[in-house]
Specification:
Elements lengths: L12 E4 L20 E4 L1 H27 L3 H30 L9 H8 L3 H24 L2
Antiparallel strand pairs: 1-2
Helix pairs in contact: 2-4
Length: 147
């Protein structure tokens, strides 16, 4: 039984860099599109096919995301709103707690909140910081004035 591949590796073929047409002879320029001709061995051809397939899959996935309406700005706005609400609640609690304990106004976030915010998205973090700061000072002053 004869082997599928000859003992020597298959010869390199010449293909156009842009239209990928096989070019016969010793031409250096593609007669179809005018592109530069390169020599392609079988391993390069396999890699090229895999890369093109991956690009096609990614473009299809991107098209599906675009059709489903997941707009990045909308997602960022949603994250900002979630962060704002969480920041308001945390600021209210911390302001009341600090006023009851009789401590001075804080200039920075408590360490546990700083650690909590490290792993969050930037839009969530911005909303949280704004909500926390605004609510913290108002809650602190309200509780501080209370008897």
């Amino acid at each position: 039984m004869s082997p599928l591949w000859p003992w020597s590796p298959p010869p390199e073929t010449k293909r156009c860099r842009y239209c990928f047409e096989e070019i016969p002879g010793e031409a250096e320029v593609c007669p179809l599109c005018g592109g530069i001709v390169i020599r392609v061995n079988p391993q390069m051809a396999k890699t090229l096919i895999i890369v093109l397939a991956l690009v096609a899959v990614v473009s299809v996935f991107q098209g599906i995301l675009d059709r489903t309406g997941l707009d990045r700005a909308e997602v960022g706005d949603r994250e900002y709103a979630r962060g704002l609400e969480a920041g308001r609640e945390a600021g209210r609690r911390q302001g009341e707690q600090d006023a009851l304990a009789g401590t001075e106004l804080r200039e920075t976030f408590p360490a546990r909140l700083d650690y909590f915010l490290r792993s969050r998205k930037p839009a969530f973090r911005e909303g949280f910081e704004k909500g926390y700061v605004n609510t913290y000072y108002s809650a602190y002053k309200r509780k501080d004035r209370a008897p």
